[in-house]
Every structure is written in structure tokens, then in C-alpha cells.
């Protein structure tokens, strides 16, 4: 009887140990996570970084390194290169740069696919149109990105789209418990109602084909926030010129009072 109880307790302990080991967040290897030519890659490929002063460049580099050491980046049918790590890290930090203590507590791993995929994650076939998504269900705490789209977004200096930034904004939106286009942890409560009203106005303009905002932003409020945020970070001066009301409220979200002023193209 006692031997049987002892064996049962050992098996239970082994079971809990196995669950713990399997459930642990994998830690990236510092030698592979941080590219050796890290700052050169940022300086060459990331406009947001290029326009920072030296002090803020150092801060940006530190934040990107922290991200790369806390989130696993895995290639699926593709090889992860230093450029990919630098661009994913930059995409993560750009939306939260003015929030020094912010970390992505809802992200463990980024999966990089070579190209677009379908809603069943197939990488072959004619119906592949997805270039990025935040995982849910079995893929909770994961993000999937297209390698080709990631690189193209940073290579296109006049574009208003950046899928990686789009998906990281979804994660910010999700932090308050719901992906609804209202990042309540970032937006002062007095601006929530004006933001909701403005979103509806801008979505109607997109539907009526009276807007230069990506039509995908009219899908719902969550997608509008993500699409508008891409525009805000990729072409801030153009957004301010064409949509000053939207620009102002996005500044309230991403650049609270006392944040550094915008001087980017």
C-alpha cells in the first residue's frame, strides 16, 4: 500500500515537472538572437531609427535587443537571417517606443513564413493572401509573418503599409483583454469617445471610396486601428496633411504628452 502510494506520488511529481518543462517559454540564444551587424542593419533599413537623435538611437537599440532576447523567432520552410531579426525587433519597438517599461507579455514566439499563406497556414496554392496574423487558440502568444512582406515593407520608402507593425499594434490592442480598436491602456479615457466617433467616420469614408487609407481598415475597428497605425508610423507627415484629426488622436495613443516631437518623412 505504502509502495503504491509512493509510486503514485512520484508519477504525479514527474507529470508536473514535464508540464512545467514543456510550458516554459524558450529563451533565445544570445549569440544567434542579436545580429552582429545589428546597428548597421537598423541604420540602413529602418527609417524610424534613422530619424532619432543619438540618445534615442541607443535607447531604441537597447529595447530591440531586449525584445530579441525574450521572444523566439523561428523560420518555417525558410532561413532566418540577421536582417529579419532586426526588422522584427524594430517593428515590435516602434509602436511602444514612448512607453519605456512596456513589454509584450502576450507574445512568446514569432513564426516567419517565406511568403503569404492561407487561413489553414498552407504555403502553397492560389488562395494564399495572408501576410501576417496574431495567433489564437493553439497558436495563442504567437505571431506569424511573411518574410517577403516584412522585407518589402521596409524597402518601400514611400509606402503607407507595414504588416509587422500592424500585427504588433493588434497585440497592444489585445493587452486590455479585447481586440476592439480601442487600446484602453494607452489612450486617456477622455479621448475614447472621440476616438470611437472618428473611427466610424473614417471607416465610412473608406467604404464610400473617399479615403486614401488602406480599404482593409474598413473591416472593423480593430483593423482600422492597425491600418491607421501603419500609416502613422510609415508616413506621418502625409497622414498629418491628409487626416489631421486622425493624426492628432494617434499621437495621443502613441506619443503621450512630453514625448519627442515628430520630424520624420
Number of strands: 4
CATH class: Alpha Beta
Low-confidence stretches: 10-25, 258-265
* CATH evolutionary superfamily: Collagenase (Catalytic Domain)
Q: Helical percent range?
A: 40-55%
> In DSSP terms, counting alpha (H) and pi (I) runs of 4 or more, how many helices?
12
Distance between the termini: 76 Å
Description:
It is built from twelve helices and four strands; from the N terminus they run αααααβαβββαααααα. With 265 residues, it is of the alpha/beta class. It has one domain (30-254): Collagenase (Catalytic Domain). Strands 1-2-4-3 form a four-stranded mixed β-sheet. Helix 5 packs across helix 6, helix 10 crosses helix 11 (236-242) and helix 11 crosses helix 12. The protein is globular and about 45 Å long. The N and C termini lie far apart (76 Å).
List keywords for this structure.
single chain; 4-stranded mixed beta sheet; globular; disordered C terminus; 4 strands; Collagenase (Catalytic Domain); 265 residues; alpha/beta
Question: What's the helix and strand layout?
Answer:
Elements: H1 2-23, H2 30-33, H3 38-45, H4 47-50, H5 54-68, E1 72-75, H6 82-93, E2 109-113, E3 132-134, E4 142-146, H7 147-155, H8 163-174, H9 192-207, H10 221-234, H11 236-242, H12 244-254
Parallel strand pairs: 1-2, 2-4
Antiparallel strand pairs: 3-4
Helix pairs in contact: 3-6, 5-6, 6-7, 8-10, 10-11, 11-12
